C-alpha cells in the first residue's frame, strides 16, 4: 500500500510494562499481558488489548503493518466446505485461537471450544487478518467493548483514523468498527486492518452506497456481493448485515417518534419501498453465508429498526426484526458461519432486561452486541454516560459486547480525545457487569486498587486504574508535590485530619488491644457504656408517646 | 456580614427564559419555572432549581443576600412543642411549603402532605433559612440530587464556594451540602446560606472538630451541641449525624479492605475507642431531637460505616449501623423531627437492591439518600461515571435523593467545572430513574427532545438538553456554520446521505401512499415479493442439513 508516513502513539501505559506469556500446549505462541508493577514489590497482570504499540522494545512501522503472526499457526482442514472456528469447535477441535483465548481469559480451553460450538460465543478471526490477536465474544467470558471510528464526507483523514485505532486499542477496545462513509474507504480500511491488533468490523452497505453515488434505490445484490467479497479478501473480521429489515416491517416505523435511525436500516427500507421488493440481503442470505464461511467472517446481524428514542423502545418494529434475525441465525449456523446479534439503542432502564431475554430466546443465545443502550434522550454531549448506565445493566443481564458511545454521539464525529473517553467509559460499564456476574478474577483488580488507596500508595492506585494519566493529573492539580504521592493524606481533608488515616489508626488500635470482636470491646468498656450494653442492643432512649 | 465583593454567574440558560407561576390557593406565592422556547412556536416548561440567578430582570447582590421570601408566608402554630412540616402534615395541615411543592412537581397537595405525614418524604426547610425555595425528598416524587461543596485546609476560598453554589443551582442541584473543613467555616456557611435558593445541609462534627484543633479525642457532647445550635440558628436545613456508629460496631471494620471511609464515622469511631464509651451522638440523641425540632431542621442520619470499596459492600458493619439508624428514625419521628437516611458508597450492581429493601424495612421507608454508589473501584478520575451507574439503579429501586460524585472523587476537591460535570451526570441518573419509575411527565422531555432531533430542529434539541452550551459547542466543532443549525443532516453522515433524512422520506412516502400497515404494503407488492409473502412470515431460505 502507498506510504502513509503516519506515526501513532507508542510506549507503555504509565506504571505498567508489556509482557508475553506462553500459550500452554502451543510452543511459540504467546499472548500479551499488561503487568502493573507495584511499589510494595507485588505485581498485577491485566488483560491487554493494546498490541505491540505499548511494547517499548517493538519497532513500529505503520507502512509495513504488524507482523502476520497467525499465518504461522497450524490451521485445521475445512469441514464440509467451512473453515470456521464454529465448525472446528463442533468437531471437538481446540484451535490455536481457542487455546490463545483460554490462556488470555484464564479459563479452560474446553470451555472456549464448547461455548463456540454451542453458538453462545464467537471468535471473529478472518483468515486474511493474521495480524489480529484472537479474542472471544460470549456471555461466559469477560464483557467486551467495541470502538467505532471512521471518516465521513465532511471530516477526518486516513492518518487520523489509524491513530484513533491505535489509541482505542491502548485504552482497552477489544474490537474496532471502521464506519467510514467518505472517500478512500478501501484505503482507510487497508491501513487500519494491517495495523490493527484487534478484530475489525464493517458495515459493507456503506461502501456499496458510495459505489452508487449515495442513492439507495440504485443498489443491487451484485454491487453489494462484490463489496462483501472485496472486504472479506481484505481481512474484515465481522460484518454488520441488516438482513432483518423486511419490506413489511417498514410501515411499522411510520408512526415512531424517531423513525429509522440506523443508517443501514434506512438504506434498506428506502430500497425496499422504492422497488416494492423484499430486501436483497434477505433473499440472498444463503449466498452471503457461503461467502463469509470461506474466510471465517462473523455475521453481526444488524438491528436496522432499533429504537432511536425512549418513546420507540421495545416496539413492534424492533421485535419483529429481532424475530427475523433469529431465523437468519439458525440459517447462518447451519452453514457453519459464526453469528452475533446487534441490539439497541435507546431503552429506559425498566425495559432493558426484556431485550436480552427475547434475544436469547429467539437467537439461541447467540452473543448479544448492543449500542449502549441510552437510558434517556435528554443529555446530548453526555451520551457516553446516559449509555454507560444502560450498557452496564444490559451487560449484567447477559450482553456479551458493548459498542461504545462517545460524548459526540448525535452531535458530530468523535476526535481522538472522544475515542478515549468513550473507551474508558465502556471499560467501566463492562467491568461493573463482570463484577455483578462474579466473573472469575474481576474483583481482584478492585481489591488491589482499594488496598493501594487505603495504604496511601498513590502511584499504585493510579497504575491500577483504567486511566493512570488522568488520575495522576487530577491528583496533582491540588497536591502537585512528589512527596504527596506517598503522603498519608489527600486534599479532601488535608494533613491535619484525614478519615482514612484515623481509620487506619482505629484499626491498629483495635488489633493491638485485641478489640476485634464486639465481645472483647464490650468487656473493656467503662461503667456507663457497660450499663448501656447491659440493656442489650435495643435502644434505651425513650420513644416519645405520640 | 462583611462585604465579599463576590460576583456570581447570572443570566438565563441558553434557549430558556425564567418564569414564575402562581401557587393555587396561596395568593402572592409563586414558584419558578424554566421555560424552553421552541422554534416551532411551542414551549416546554422545566422544573427549575436555579434561583433568581437565571432571571434576567433580577438584581443580584451577594452581600445583601436573597430575599427572605418565606418569612412572609403564614406559618402554622407549633404542635406539642414541635414546629415542623412533619407534625403539621400529621395534623392534616397543608402548609404553604407543601402547596408550593405540589405546584412545582405537578402533583396533588394532599399527596405531598400524606407522604410527609407518613415519614416517606421530607421537606428540609429551617425557619431560619427563609431564602430557600421549598422542595421535597421522597420516593413518590422526582428523584433529587445533592451537590457537595466546601473548602478544606489546603484549598479554595469563600468566594469560590459561593460561585460553586450558584453554579450547582444553575445546572440542577436540588440541595447543597457545605462540607467545609478549613478555616472560616462559619463565615463560608453564612455567605452560602444567605444566597442559596436550595436547602443547605452540613455535617456539624466537622466544625466541632475544628474547635478542638482536629483531635477527635478532645470532642465533647457540649462542644458538639453548641455547634449544632449555632448552625440551626444560622439556617442550616438538614444535618448529617453519624449517631449509628456505636462502640461495639467499630471492631467489625477492623478487617475490612478500606476500614472506615466516612469522615464523621472515623471521628466518632476514634472517640469511642479512645474513651471506651458509647458515642455521645447516640446517648444524647433525644436532646438533639429537641434542638432540631425547634427550627424544623431535618436529620440526615449518616452512614459512618458505609463501605469504601467493592470488597466491603453490604457487610456486617454496614448493616449493623443501618439497624441502629432504624431505631433512631423512630425516636426522631416520635419527637416530630423529619428524618432521611444516608446510604453507600461502593456497591457492585448485584448488591444494590438489597440496600434499598433493608433501608425501607428498618427505617419505615424514610427517604434514602445515597452517595452513588460506585459500581466499581477501578476508575479514579471517572467516579462520576462509576457512581452514575449505581445511582441510576439505586434510584430506580426507590432512593429519593442522590448525592453527586465528581471526577475528582478520591483525588482532590472539585473545582467549578467538576461541580457542573457532577451535577449534569447526576441529573442524568435521576432522570433515568424517573423514566424507569414512570414518574408523571418524566418522558415528556425525552419525547420533546427526540422530536426536535428527528425534525432537525438543532437549536430546540440543544435548548431541551441538560447542558445546551456544551451540546451546541460539540455540534459547532464539526459544523460551525449557523445554517447547519437548521440543516437536514449532521456531520455523522454528511449532506449526501443521512439516515434520519431517508427515514423521514420513508415515512412521508409510506403515509402518502397509504402504506402504513403490513397489509397495505403487501397488497402493493410486486410478484416476487408477493410470492414470498404467500409463504407467510416463515423463512423460505433452506436450512442446510447439518
TrEMBL record, chains A, B:
Gene3D superfamilies according to UniProt: 6.10.250.620, Radical SAM ThiC family, central domain (3.20.20.540)
Q: Where does Zn(2+) bind?
A: 346, 410
Annotated InterPro entries: ThiC, ThiC-associated_dom, ThiC/Bza_core_dom, ThiC/BzaA/B
One GO BP annotation of this record: thiamine diphosphate biosynthetic process
EC class, as a word, reads lyase
Provide the binding site for substrate. Answer: 148, 177, 206, 242, 262-264, 303-306, 342, 369
Q: Pathway membership of this protein?
A: Cofactor biosynthesis; thiamine diphosphate biosynthesis
Catalytic reaction annotation: 5-amino-1-(5-phospho-beta-D-ribosyl)imidazole + S-adenosyl-L-methionine = 4-amino-2-methyl-5-(phosphooxymethyl)pyrimidine + CO + 5'-deoxyadenosine + formate + L-methionine + 3 H(+)
Q: Where is the ThiC-associated domain?
A: 15-73
Q: Which HAMAP family does the record associate with it?
A: ThiC
| Protein name listed in UniProt | Phosphomethylpyrimidine synthase
**Gene encoding the protein:** thiC
Amino acid at each position: 500500500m502507498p506510504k502513509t508516513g503516519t506515526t501513532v502513539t507508542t510506549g507503555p501505559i504509565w506504571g505498567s510494562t508489556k509482557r508475553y506469556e506462553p500459550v500452554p500446549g502451543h510452543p511459540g505462541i504467546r499472548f500479551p499481558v499488561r503487568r502493573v508493577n507495584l511499589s510494595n514489590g507485588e505485581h498485577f497482570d491485566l488483560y491487554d488489548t493494546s498490541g505491540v504499540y505499548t511494547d517499548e522494545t517493538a519497532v513500529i512501522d505503520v507502512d509495513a503493518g504488524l507482523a502476520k503472526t497467525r499465518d504461522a499457526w497450524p490451521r485445521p482442514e475445512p469441514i464440509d466446505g467451512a473453515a470456521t472456528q464454529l465448525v472446528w469447535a463442533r468437531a471437538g477441535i481446540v484451535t490455536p485461537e481457542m487455546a490463545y483465548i483460554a490462556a488470555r481469559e484464564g479459563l479452560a480451553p474446553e470451555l472456549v471450544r464448547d461455548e463456540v460450538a454451542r453458538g453462545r460465543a464467537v471468535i471473529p478471526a478472518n483468515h486474511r487478518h493474521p495480524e489480529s490477536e484472537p479474542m472471544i465474544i460470549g456471555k461466559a467470558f469477560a464483557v467486551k467493548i467495541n470502538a467505532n471510528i471512521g471518516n465521513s464526507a465532511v471530516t477526518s483523514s486516513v492518518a487520523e483514523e489509524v491513530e484513533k485505532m491505535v489509541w482505542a486499542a491502548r485504552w482497552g477496545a477489544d474490537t474496532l468498527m471502521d464506519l467510514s462513509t467518505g472517500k478512500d474507504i478501501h484505503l482507510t480500511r487497508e491501513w487500519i486492518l494491517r495495523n490493527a491488533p484487534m478484530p475489525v468490523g464493517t458495515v459493507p452497505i456503506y461502501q456499496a452506497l458510495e459505489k452508487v453515488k449515495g442513492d439507495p434505490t440504485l443498489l443491487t445484490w451484485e454491487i453489494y456481493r462484490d463489496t462483501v467479497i472485496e472486504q472479506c479478501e481484505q481481512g474484515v473480521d465481522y460484518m454488520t448485515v441488516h438482513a432483518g429489515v423486511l419490506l413489511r416491517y417498514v410501515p411499522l416505523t411510520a408512526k415512531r417518534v424517531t423513525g429509522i435511525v440506523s443508517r443501514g436500516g434506512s438504506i434498506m427500507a428506502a430500497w425496499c419501498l422504492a422497488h416494492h421488493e423484499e430486501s436483497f440481503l434477505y433473499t440472498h442470505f444463503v449466498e452471503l453465508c457461503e461467502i463469509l464461511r470461506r474466510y471465517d467472517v462473523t455475521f453481526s446481524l444488524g438491528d436496522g429498526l432499533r429504537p432511536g428514542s425512549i418513546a420507540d423502545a421495545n416496539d413492534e418494529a424492533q421485535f419483529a426484526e429481532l424475530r427475523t434475525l433469529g431465523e437468519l441465525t439458525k440459517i447462518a449456523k447451519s452453514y457453519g458461519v459464526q453469528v452475533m446479534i446487534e441490539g439497541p439503542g435507546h431503552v429506559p432502564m425498566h425495559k432493558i432486561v426484556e431485550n436480552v431475554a427475547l434475544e436469547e430466546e429467539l437467537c439461541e443465545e447467540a452473543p448479544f452486541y448492543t449500542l449502549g443502550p441510552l437510558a434517556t434522550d435528554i443529555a446530548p454531549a453526555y451520551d457516553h454516560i446516559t449509555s454507560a448506565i444502560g450498557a452496564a445493566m444490559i451487560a449484567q443481564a447477559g450482553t456479551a459486547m458493548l459498542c461504545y458511545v462517545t460524548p459526540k454521539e448525535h452531535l458530530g464525529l468523535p476526535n481522538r480525545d472522544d475515542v478515549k473517553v468513550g473507551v474508558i467509559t465502556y471499560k467501566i460499564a463492562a467491568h461493573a457487569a463482570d463484577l455483578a456476574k462474579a466473573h472469575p478474577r474481576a474483583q481482584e483488580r478492585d481489591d488491589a486498587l482499594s488496598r493501594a488507596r487505603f495504604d496511601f500508595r498513590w502511584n499504585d492506585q493510579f497504575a491500577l486504574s483504567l486511566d493512570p494519566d488522568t488520575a495522576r493529573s487530577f491528583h496533582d492539580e491540588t497536591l502537585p508535590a512528589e512527596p504527596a504521592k506517598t503522603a498519608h493524606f489527600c486534599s479532601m481533608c488535608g494533613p491535619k485530619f484525614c478519615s482514612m488515616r484515623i481509620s487506619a489508626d482505629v484499626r491498629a488500635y483495635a488489633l493491638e488491644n485485641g478489640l476485634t470482636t464486639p465481645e472483647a470491646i464490650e468487656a473493656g468498656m467503662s461503667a456507663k457504656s457497660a450499663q448501656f450494653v447491659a440493656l442489650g442492643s435495643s435502644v434505651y432512649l425513650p420513644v416519645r408517646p405520640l
